[in-house]
Design a protein that fits this description.
Layout lengths: L1 H27 L7 E13 L6 E6 L8 E4 L3 E8 L8 E3 L22 E8 L4 E6 L11 E7 L16 E9 L4 H9 L4 H6 L5 H6 L3 H9 L14 E4 L4 E4 L7 E8 L6 E5 L4 E6 L2 E8 L2 E3 L4 E7 L5 E9 L6 E6 L2 E3 L9 H11 L20 H4 L50 E11 L4 E4 L10 E3 L4 E8 L5 E5 L4 E3 L9 E2 L1 E4 L4 E7 L5 E6 L2 H5 L3 E6 L11 H11 L4 E9 L2 E9 L3 E9 L7 E9 L7 E11 L6 E2 L5 E2 L3 E12 L5 E7 L4 E11 L4 E8 L4 E8 L4 E8 L3 E9 L1
Parallel strand pairs: 1-4, 3-8, 9-12, 11-19, 18-20, 21-24, 23-31
Antiparallel strand pairs: 1-2, 4-6, 5-7, 7-8, 9-10, 12-17, 13-16, 13-18, 14-15, 14-17, 18-19, 21-22, 24-29, 25-28, 25-30, 26-27, 26-29, 30-31, 32-33, 32-45, 33-34, 34-35, 35-36, 36-39, 37-38, 39-40, 40-41, 41-42, 42-43, 43-44, 44-45
Helix pairs in contact: 5-6
Length: 749
């Protein structure tokens, strides 16, 4: 009897846990007769050659993109992830409603999947639509870990749409490829490296501005302390549709209608979508049905999905479905049909100086944007007229290897571009009227110079979780006070987009917000757990533009035994240190600098080494913290160590004797970014001496030439000119008041 009681005592906690789990699932799972659908995914290192160069990638089951996963609503997904990498990994099921522990965010909903282990994701499929999945570990998504996920409607679904849901479908996943290591890409972005702009021909130098008649525009831009305008961060070597830059769907013939289930699996690229066979009919967005809307083109934000229907107009012709990145550097194509290839009209090159002129008008002198409120929302203005006014532009036929170049479709004068205000749900999406409402507002902020991306000027490392109550309605106002677009994604929920459609507001899980835009979204907090909310541009997310919504009084997550420790690990990912090094080997000496920085802190050392005692050597080290949203101000402490053989005493402009020959000094100072991006540095040494300095290192004279100058109250000055030969190599000439004239080689990292 006692033994029986002991058994009952041991079983009781297990039974209670199972009952609690079943209760949670009961909230999620409708009563269905669905089946368990299992996939085994083997994650391995791979080698690819997209550009003529052999590079490392990550393949799943030997392929990039990852296999398309297909389920029917009512199924149970059982996905076995076998990690064969030398690093940890994870998989996130983008746009799915599921138990929080299955969401796939390392250190937030689970521990990472360690090398040579297997993790099983198991969750009910309680929705339908076009979705996708990807790694949520580091930058793995950039090098292959993305794939389509298609959730089909049941045949007896009351919302089954004949002529739409019964069409033949093709999963389409868009992506990009860079030959650079993504970690290096991220580091280069933080260090404001110009190489990507050079590769894209978007430097917008003073020489180019004068040639284009926009010298005043460029001057105004730098007077407001802005870098050159850009519409994307990274130069990519290739753009891909289903893992190829060009492919063919020859199984379709004249008169066929095809449903393209499109996911943007790119790390940071928006894509313009156009079709040579005519108009496209948008029937779904982010996995949710919308009332059909006919358009000529649409832009798909990073991580968004769209379902569009296209028609093959004629026999013996294949029609180009063209995906063009927002910066319009390259494109990718898939041809639908068989026969002669009919090409879509290529999009003209961007007029960057026209865009810069508009951005100048949008930006105030204090570095904030002109808030236009709800007048500027939901992409209701064509991106071409908002971000970069394009009136004309070269519309030359696209270079092609095809034998036929006569079949180019010409653009219409009345081009219909999709915007969010056009999206309408076919069914009511209203939330419970008696539920309490929590109002939140977030300002999307950023610093392009240092590549810091934040919300309310705080990165994830500087914030706690946002506590919400289960059952309440969370209404969020989002204002983009930065110079870049941000596709904001909420895990585990769809939200209503307040777009003027009333009870039929569309449901989405990604909202693209342009500069100056103000948008409102709302959702019911009906699922327990910790849910990530972040910009889906991969490098913005890793730079800190994240938040976590956490339901109060939630059940413990069995996959995270120490949630506080795990959350701190997650926070550190948004505040990593980034390293930079530059060294000049010149005929008059060696000088250089190294810097280690994160969101707020900077540790930098500069040095100068002469070839004889008269030139001597000097090193200056500064440890500072950036202040304010724009980070124009940096107080610092410094250390100066110097030796040279110079017999004549020197005085600075303040009449103070300058012990330059042999000194070891500590200092306190402040650096401030002035208009024209000139750094004003004021420093007080422990002996009472004061030094004021003006400096700028990166004045863009032409596409590859950069000028530099420095002058201070110690009567030191420098002028330099640098030619950027490659990502890590340059040639420099300069004159230094201490070192004289020099010519040499510049190495940077």
């Amino acid at each position: 009897m006692d033994n029986q009681k002991n058994i009952y005592k041991k079983l009781l906690p297990i039974v209670l846990m199972l009952l609690a789990t079943s209760n949670i699932f009961a909230q999620l799972v409708p009563t269905t007769s669905g089946k368990v659908v299992r996939y085994d995914l083997y994650v391995k290192d791979s080698i690819v050659n997209f550009t003529g160069k052999v590079k490392r990638a990550i393949a799943v089951n030997g392929q990039i993109p990852m296999p398309t996963l297909t389920f029917t609503e009512g199924d149970t997904a059982e996905i076995h992830v076998h990690n064969r990498l030398k690093e940890s990994t994870s998989l996130h099921w983008h746009g799915l409603y599921l138990p929080n522990k299955e969401d796939g965010v390392p250190y937030l909903t689970q521990m990472p999947i360690e090398p040579n282990t297997t993790h099983i994701y198991r969750f009910p499929i309680i929705q339908n639509g076009t979705h996708w999945y990807h790694s949520h570990s580091g930058l793995q998504e950039q090098i292959g870990m993305y794939g389509s996920m298609i959730l089909l409607k049941r045949a007896d679904d009351p919302n089954f749409r004949k002529g739409i849901d019964d069409l033949p479908t093709v999963p389409i996943i868009l992506s990009e490829w860079t030959d650079y290591n993504p970690d290096n890409v991220h580091r280069m972005l933080h260090n404001a490296n110009d190489w990507f702009a050079i590769k894209k021909n978007t430097v917008q130098s003073y020489g180019e501005a004068i040639k284009a008649g926009h010298f005043k525009t460029k001057l105004t831009n730098e007077w407001k302390r802005m870098l050159a305008m850009d519409v994307s961060d990274v130069y990519y070597d290739k753009f891909l549709i289903n893992g190829a830059s060009e492919s063919q769907l020859s199984q379709f013939k004249a008169g066929d209608k095809v449903r393209l289930r499109i996911s943007n699996g790119g790390a940071s690229s928006y894509f313009w979508l156009t079709y040579a066979g005519g108009k496209m009919t948008v029937v779904a967005n982010d996995g949710n049905d919308v009332e059909p809307v006919v358009v000529d083109r649409l832009i798909i934000g990073v991580s968004e999905t769209y379902d569009v229907i296209v028609t093959i107009p004629a026999e013996n012709t294949s029609y180009e479905f063209l995906a063009t990145p927002e910066d319009r550097t390259k494109s990718a194509s898939i041809y639908i049909g068989s026969g002669i290839k009919q090409l879509a009209s290529p999009l003209p090159k961007l007029k960057y100086f026209e865009g810069m002129k508009m951005m100048n008008d949008m930006m105030k002198m204090d570095g904030t944007m002109n808030d236009m409120g709800m007048d500027m929302s939901l992409q209701q203005m064509d991106m071409n007229t908002v971000m970069y006014p394009e009136i004309t532009g070269e519309n030359k036929p696209k270079k092609s290897e095809h034998s036929d170049h006569s079949n180019h479709t010409m653009p219409s004068n009345d081009i219909v571009t999709l915007n969010y205000a056009m999206l309408k749900s076919p069914t009511k999406t209203t939330l419970p009227k008696d539920a309490p409402i929590r109002e939140l507002r977030f300002e999307l902020t950023g610093n392009m110079n240092r590549y810091v991306w934040s919300m309310d000027n705080r990165v994830l490392a500087e914030t706690d979780k946002i506590l919400i109550k289960k059952g309440e309605i969370v209404r969020i106002t989002l204002y983009n006070n930065s110079m870049m677009r941000h596709p904001m994604h909420l895990h585990g929920h769809d939200f209503r987009v307040i777009n003027g459609q009333g009870d039929y507001a569309p449901l989405k899980n990604v909202l693209d917000i342009m500069p100056m835009e103000t948008n409102v979204i709302e959702f019911e907090a009906n699922l327990e757990g910790d849910w990530f909310f972040h910009c889906h541009i991969l490098y913005h997310m890793m730079a800190g533009m994240n938040r976590v919504f956490s339901t109060e009084n939630q059940e413990p997550n069995p996959l995270l035994p120490d949630k506080k420790w795990a959350y701190k690990k997650l926070q550190r990912e948004s505040n990593e240190l980034h390293f930079m090094l530059q060294n000049d080997f010149a005929n008059n000496g060696n000088d250089g600098m190294t810097m280690l920085q994160n969101t707020r802190w900077s540790f930098g050392t500069e040095w100068r080494l002469g070839y004889h005692d008269r030139h001597g050597y000097e090193t200056e080290t500064h440890i500072g913290r950036y202040i304010g949203r724009n980070q124009w101000l940096m107080p610092f402490i410094g250390f100066d160590w110097r030796y040279r053989k110079h017999e004549t005493p020197e005085k600075n402009l303040f009449g103070q004797t300058n012990t330059k020959d042999n000194r070891t000094q500590f200092s306190l100072g402040v650096a401030y970014t002035l208009p024209m991006l000139v750094i004003l540095q004021t420093e007080v040494y422990h002996d009472g001496n004061v030094r004021v300095q003006l400096r700028r290192e990166d004045i863009p004279i032409s596409k590859r030439f950069r000028a530099a100058f420095m002058g201070n109250t110690d009567r030191e000055y420098m002028f330099g000119l640098n030619y950027i030969a490659s990502k890590n190599l340059g040639f420099r000439t300069h004159y230094d008041s201490d070192m004289g004239f020099g010519v040499g080689l510049t190495i940077n990292y």
